[in-house]
Amino acid sequence: MPPKKSNRNNCEDCKKEVGSDDKALVCCVCEKWHHINCQHVPMDDYKFLTKSDDSIQWYCKSCRGASQKLLKMLTLVSKRQDQLEEEVKKYTVD
Ligand SMILES: [Zn+2]
Ligand SMILES: [Zn+2]
After folding, report:
1. For the chain, which residues make up each domain, given as ranges?
2. CA atoms within 13 A on the CB side of 73
3. Residue 52 Cα, ligand 1 centroid: separation in angstroms?
4. Residue 51 has what pLDDT?
5. Which tens digits make up the pLDDT trace of 32-84?
6. Where is the composition biased (Basic and acidic residues) (predicted)?
């Protein structure tokens, strides 16, 4: 029996099946399929993404938003840590 992996790929946005003729991309974060129409990906972008090797990463809209939030959070945290280290230095000097 073949492994029960991705039996059928459905678009995460419209929940419809992604056929072999459909233009769709896989998000590298959630690893879900998305029709380019559902994600409003320009045809030029789609051509570029599919022409190049798979080292090019594509993020769906929701993951792009999430990763940006995460990035902001991370910079905030590292900033806070820097401040904390400065504070610690102040008190540890001497
Ligand atoms: Zn769709
Ligand atoms: Zn995604």
Report:
1. 24-92
2. 6
3. 23
4. 85
5. 999 999 999 999 999 988 887 666 788 899 998 877 777 787 888 888 888 88
6. 10-20
**Residue type for position 36:** I
Q: How many A from CA of 21 to the centre of ligand 2?
A: 21
CA of 58 to the centre of ligand 1 (A): 16
Beta bridge pairs of residue 34: 25
Q: How many CB atoms lie within 10 A of CB 11?
A: 19
Longest dimension (CA), the chain: 71
If phi > 0 it is left, if psi is from -120 to 50 it is alpha, else beta; for residue 18 that is beta
Q: Which CATH number fits domain 24-92: 3.30.40, 3.80.10, 1.10.8, 2.60.300?
A: 3.30.40
